[in-house]
Design a protein that fits this description.
The protein is mainly alpha-helical. The chain is built from 18 helices and 5 strands. The chain has a 3-stranded antiparallel sheet with strand order 1-2-3. The protein has a two-stranded antiparallel ribbon with strand order 4-5. The longest helix has about 35 residues.
Length: about 450
Amino acid sequence: MGSLARLWFVLALPFAVIMMIMTPPFQTPDEQNHFFRAVQIGQGGIVGRKLNWRQAGGFLPEGAVSYASSFGDLPFHMERKVSWERIHDRSGGSWQTPNISADFGNTVIYAPMFYCAVVLGIDLGRIAHLSVRDSFYLARFCNILFCVVVGALAIAIARKGRLLIALILSLPMTLSLDGSCSQDGALIAAAALTAALLSRAQEAPFQGYKPWLVLGLMLGFIAASKPPYFLVLAFPALLMPRVLWRQTLACAVLGAAILFAWSIFGVHPAKIPFQIDEGISTPRQFHFVLAHPLHMVQILSRTFHLYGPTFWREYLGTLGWLDTPLPHWFYRTATLFLLIGGFCALAQLPRKAANRIALLRAALVSLIVAATTIGVCLALYLIWTPLGLDHIEGIQGRYFLAISLFAILALPAERRAPGCALQVLALAEPSILFLAFGTGAFATTEALLARYW
């Protein structure tokens, strides 16, 4: 493991645990429903169920449902605080209670792959006869371990944009998701590792079928967990030499099969329409998109014009239920560090002009990242936005963290030739990461303590 990966691991693991402790239970976006989904998977319920025409979820222990609901008074109420006495309530909820119906329609359709660490923590707690509270914190800790180990591995094996990967994985938004029961932290870590594997395969194509099988599985898991990310399946064919067309085609077919299978057998049985009371109809929205493509361009443009700065702040770190902003100086500083990370990656450009194929590949990677970003927005227009509205509702900046990691594939590969500039750059990267992480840790600690304690 390289020095940058070791440094990130040493910084990220303890601070993610600290964030986990400072963030009260179920105080990240939809963490309650993610917890319910993880409990359901741990009980063997890989596929959810419709409870009625407006609700979907499953049957979970009453103690788990009651405990998860006991912190519902905190989101969006900045005046309400918590105490150690409340968090360390003696009962903590019991698993030995009858099952009752639980509605978690927005997470029941999620594929199980990136819940594995959370499910492990919950099941270990149940086996050890821990309370629901203790099992919940154990699940958070297992998720942290998974995300930090996978993230460090991604930084270690990447051949492009290592510092940029480390900086994105160090963002308060990323670390907050790592320390929750959400699937998003594991998804972001897996995206980093997949991008790193692709960058490594570009430099030295994999031998044998096993690495390609792993790559196809990871791409399929990402696409199944976030269907608007389906374009990532094209990366192997786009980046690898033509002689590897069989391997890259196999990756795409395997990934598409996973996405298709989960859509049919996992999503369809439990999918319910969202926002029915708001008059939202996905078929009507879809017809409108097809009938008015140019108008959709205007809607996208207006959405980013109105809310672009908000999306960027959420991407960097707006904690809690997006009700806990960080200090203004942090957003400027974090943006600067990301720009420095991009500059360090571009400094690897070869002295000779890059060939046309390399430039074309970089342009296509950028196009896929941009198209996926638009795809996320269109998906939320279809399922979450009232028809006729002049902007898209429901977009959160955290939705773009995973896809942004694939942007490193458009960067030049690291040069190994000796040179004073490259040696200075290699020495500077750990210092840049340390400073960036330190500023984020300070801002996060200040914001969480002021918000919840």
